[in-house]
Design a protein that fits this description.
The chain is mainly α. The protein is 64% helix and 6% strand. Strands 1-2-3 form a three-stranded antiparallel beta sheet.
Length: 240
C-alpha cells in the first residue's frame, strides 16, 4: 500500500527540488539561535546575514506564505517546499496515534496528496497552513480509525533519560505500557487532545485550530480527557 501511494504521489507531484529564493537554510556551523537567509547578504555583499529569534520566525513565516501562494497557483515545486517543512511532524503525529510506522507513512502521503488537491481553495487568513495540514491528517486518521477501532499511541517515542538506573527504567517501561493501553481506551477526541497537547507539544490555541474548536473548549476537553485517562489507568492498574 505504501509503495502504491508513493507512486501516485510522485507521479502527481514532481519533486524536482531546487533552492527556492528566500529559502531559510540551517547549518550546524551557525551560531546558536541563528538562521541563514539564502538571499540576505551583508552590506558589501561579501558575507551572509543572520536572523535571530522573532526575526528568523518572521522570515520563515514569509517564506511559507510565498510557498503557499505559489502552490495555490499550481506550482508543484513550491508545494514540495511545504512538504519538506511539515511532513516530518505530520508523520510523527500519526505515528504517535497509530504506533504503526508503515500505516502512518501511508496516511501521511495520502494527507499531503489531499492537501495538494485542496490547496487551490485554501485561504491563509482562515487558518495557518500548519493547522490546515493537521486538520487534513486528522481527518485521514479518523477515517482510518472508523475501519479499525482499536488504536494505541506510541509513547515509546518519548525516550527516557539515558542515565536512569535499571529499576527506575523498568518502572518507567511498565508505566508506559499502562499509559499506552489506557490511551487506546479513550474516545477519539480525548486521545487526540492529549496527543496534540502533551506529545506534539501544541498550545491550546493551536489544538483548537487543528480540531476546529475554541481555545476555551480545548482546555475543558483536555481537563476531561485527563480525568478519563486517570480513571482508565486506575481500572487497568487494578485489574493487573
Amino acid at each position: 500500500m505504501a509503495e502504491a501511494l508513493l507512486g501516485v504521489w510522485t507521479t502527481q507531484i514532481p519533486f524536482a527540488r531546487r533552492e527556492i529564493p528566500g529559502e531559510v537554510r540551517r547549518s550546524p556551523s551557525l551560531p546558536p539561535g541563528r538562521t541563514l537567509l539564502a538571499v540576505d547578504l551583508s552590506a558589501d555583499g561579501s558575507a551572509p546575514a543572520y536572523a535571530t529569534g522573532s526575526a528568523a520566525a518572521g522570515a520563515e513565516d514569509a517564506i511559507v506564505g510565498r510557498l503557499v501562494e505559489a502552490a495555490r497557483r499550481g506550482d508543484a515545486e513550491a508545494f514540495g517546499g511545504l512538504y519538506d517543512r511539515f511532513q516530518p511532524e505530520i508523520l510523527r503525529y500519526l505515528t504517535y496515534q497509530l504506533r504503526d510506522r508503515d500505516t502512518a507513512e501511508d496516511l501521511t502521503q495520502q494527507a499531503f496528496l489531499n492537501a495538494w488537491r485542496a490547496i487551490p481553495r485554501y485561504e491563509q487568513r482562515s487558518v495557518p497552513v500548519r493547522a490546515w495540514l493537521y486538520r487534513i491528517a486528522r481527518n485521514q486518521l479518523l477515517d482510518h480509525l472508523k475501519r479499525r477501532r482499536r488504536v494505541t499511541v506510541d509513547v515509546d517515542l518519548v525516550n527516557p533519560a539515558a542515565d536512569i538506573d535499571l529499576e527506575a527504567h523498568a518502572v518507567a517501561e511498565d508505566e508506559r505500557r499502562l499509559l499506552r493501553n489506557a490511551l487506546g481506551h479513550l474516545s477519539d477526541d480525548h486521545r487526540d487532545v492529549l496527543v496534540l497537547r502533551f506529545l506534539m507539544e501544541k498550545s491550546a490555541a493551536e489544538v483548537g485550530l487543528i480540531m476546529g474548536r475554541k481555545e476555551g473548549t480545548i482546555r475543558g476537553l483536555q481537563f476531561r480527557a485527563l480525568q478519563a485517562l486517570r480513571s482508565v489507568m486506575e481500572e487497568l492498574g487494578a485489574s493487573r
